[in-house]
């Protein structure tokens, strides 16, 4: 169960930085549906498009949709929903420690091995690669 290894504290640390996650076509559609405006308006107001890469804009060092929490939580991208339970944590204990330092929701006290066992049970075999 996810709560055994992670419990989101809605601190917004994951929303800060100089980049955001890349959006899939499904992510974009979910945003359009949630915001209830046209795809073109969503792209113009909220997104940064570089070639084939679509990301949310950064404003004052955080995602454009962050304002004391995620303002599009039900319509947020899949990768945002997945974070910080990312398969890269399984590859190396240093990834676990680095991500754990930036996310107070990760239950570091259970240790790396127990965390990995719990995460492995949550993610599909395809994602682990």
- State the total count of DSSP E strands: 4
Total helix count? 6
What is the first-to-last residue Cα distance? 21 Å
Query: Which spans of ≥5 residues are poorly predicted at pLDDT below 50?
Result: none
Strand content: 5-15%
Shape: elongated
Question: What composes the largest sheet?
Answer: 2 strands, antiparallel
Q: Helical proportion?
A: 25-40%
Tally the structural domains. 2
Q: What structural category arises from helix and sheet content? A: mainly alpha
In spatial order, strands of the major sheet run 1-2
Q: Which value, in Å, is the CA radius of gyration?
A: 16 Å
Mean pLDDT: 87
Account of the protein in words:
The protein has 129 residues and is mainly alpha-helical. The protein folds into two domains: 2-11 and 84-122, no CATH class; 17-71, no CATH class. It is 38% helix and 9% strand. The chain has six helices and four strands; from the N terminus they run ααββββαααα. It has helices spanning 25-35, 39-46, 78-82, 88-91, 93-102, 112-122; strands at residues 47-50, 53-56, 58-59, 62-63. The strands form two sheets. Strands 1-2 form a two-stranded antiparallel ribbon. Strands 3-4 form a two-stranded antiparallel sheet. Strand 1 and strand 2 form a beta hairpin.
Summarize the structure.
The protein is mostly helical and 129 residues long. It folds into two domains: 49 residues, no CATH class; 55 residues, no CATH class. Helix content is 38%, strand content 9%.
Keywords:
single chain, mainly alpha, two-stranded antiparallel sheet, 38% helix, 9% strand
């Amino acid at each position: 169960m996810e709560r055994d290894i992670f419990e989101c504290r809605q601190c917004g640390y994951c929303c800060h930085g100089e980049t955001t996650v890349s959006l899939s076509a499904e992510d974009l559609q979910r945003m359009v549906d949630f915001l209830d405006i046209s795809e073109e308006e969503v792209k113009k107001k909220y997104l940064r498009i570089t070639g084939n890469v679509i990301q949310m804009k950064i404003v004052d060092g955080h995602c454009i949709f962050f304002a004391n929490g995620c303002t599009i939580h039900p319509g947020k991208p899949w990768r945002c929903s997945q974070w910080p339970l990312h398969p890269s944590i399984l590859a190396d204990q240093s990834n676990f420690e680095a991500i754990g330092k930036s996310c107070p929701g990760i239950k570091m006290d259970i240790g790396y091995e127990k965390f990995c066992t719990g995460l492995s049970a949550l993610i599909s075999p395809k994602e682990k690669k």
